[in-house]
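User: I'm designing a mutation panel for Guanylate-binding protein 1-like and want to avoid disrupting the core. Could you give me a predicted structure to guide residue selection? Please restate the sequence first so the numbering is unambiguous.

Assistant: Good idea. Sequence first, for numbering, then the predicted structure tokens:
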Amino acid sequence: VNMAKPLSMDKPECLIDTESGGKLYVKESALQILQKIEQPVVVVAVVGLYRTGKSYLMNRLAGQQTGFALGSTIESKTKGIWMWCVPHPTKAGTTLVLLDTEGLGDVDKGDSKHDSNIFCLAVLLSSTLVYNSRGTIDNRAVEELQYVTELTECIKVKSSNNDADDSGEFVKFFPSFIWAVRDFTLERKIDGNDATEDEYLEFALKLKPGTSKKVMEYNLPRECIQNYFPSRKCFTFPFPTAPENVSHLEKLDSSDISSDFLEVTENFCKYAFEKSEVKKLKDGITVSGRVLGHLAKNYVDTISSGVVPCLENAVIAMAKIENEAAVKDGLEIYQSGMEKLKDTFPLELKDVSSEHQHLSSTATQTFMKRSFRDNDGGYLKTLEVSRNSSHISSFKETEKAVLLEQEIKVKEEKQRQLEEKMEAERKSNEERMRQMKEKMDEEIKLQREEAERAMESKLREQAALLEKGFKEKADRMKEEMEEFKRQNAEAESNRAREFAEMLENSNRRHEESMAVMMQQHREQMEAIQQTNSRSSDGCCVL
């Protein structure tokens, strides 16, 4: 996958638009672009109130002065969600996907649900979420990030939970969080001491002790930011230039822009490039541009139908699409190879068996590269059945041509060929089992790493709570972590059991295939003997 050819767009394209009735939909032209991207993608999305200069940062991440529309009037310029796909500047074999979202809180729309949906989609699709605001991170700024408190109503992790709150698992799948504060004019000081940007953010997110309604309302958005996102970072940008020049910032020469502003912008881009991870699905599955397109359509269609998007259901839907395509890819590799083999007749049967083994292994490798969550091995079985059916057809034609050309070998020779054929199938099965084992080990490793990252994040939050005197909250988080560890252990055990059953089923199918092969061979021997008889009478000429 990493060796796939990179794709670069000259300018942004609308990914998610709004119909006249207000319903969101995915643009087909954008899906076609994503379909061509087989590389893993790093997805950076920016959200924030309208007229806060979100688009300028995204243009800089794209390495351009212009691209995403900049709006200096009270009307939001960007509608829906726009995307820009470019080769990642520091991660070879990876595509950087930039998502610029419609400004939140646009007075002309007056639709808070629409804003919530845009924010929700930015969270679901990105691996790094940039929240852009102006001024300072005071209580008002935190309250304006109300959308984060609504995520429990907008996103479900598991379909089986119904109304249960599974937000404790958000940290496993949510993007990293960057707060970009624009037009920052205050001194960064805490209790009179100089503070770093991150210390300033942590101070702004500090919880208040107490359980009154007012305190709980104050703490809620701060707890959500701390608990949902695996990491958080802050950048404070000074005014970029004189007020009269802000409306055409993208057209200014760097000498007309504040050097401090340019320095923070450079630091922001460097951090985004180095720290933003490849987008992953549940269980650590890497997302390509093609899969990102499927994800966007799945989430948007679900939201537009009035249903809460579910991460587990999205993975199941993606697995079906990708596994069906993986079967097709693997079968095409095998069939094209066998067609080329026909052009080299006549051949020894051992040569045909050898090529069958090689092509079977290559087909399985091709399938494994694209497939995921084939827990019961059903799609791999479909590939094997289709491949064997194709093989039997080609092999009968090959065998008949070879035996007629060589005046048909004796029964002992046929027995030797049968043994070679069975040995080739045995080796093919061993190789298949090895590849399955590697795939299984990798998936379990990814699942374990995902759980470990989430646990590390929870441990950091618990330590922070203890340090700040919130012992009761820390104790509750400890209980959550114990339950979290139990669930992860159970999930890993279930995964291992599924894999064991998958291996057992594959072995059983191999044995059944061998039995069928022997029966077919006996039938072929009888047909060959009859053909030999006709050939000796001069009635059959090759």
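For picking mutation sites, this is relevant: The first strand starts at residue 13 and ends at 18. Residues 13-280 form a domain with the Rossmann fold fold (CATH 3.40.50.300).
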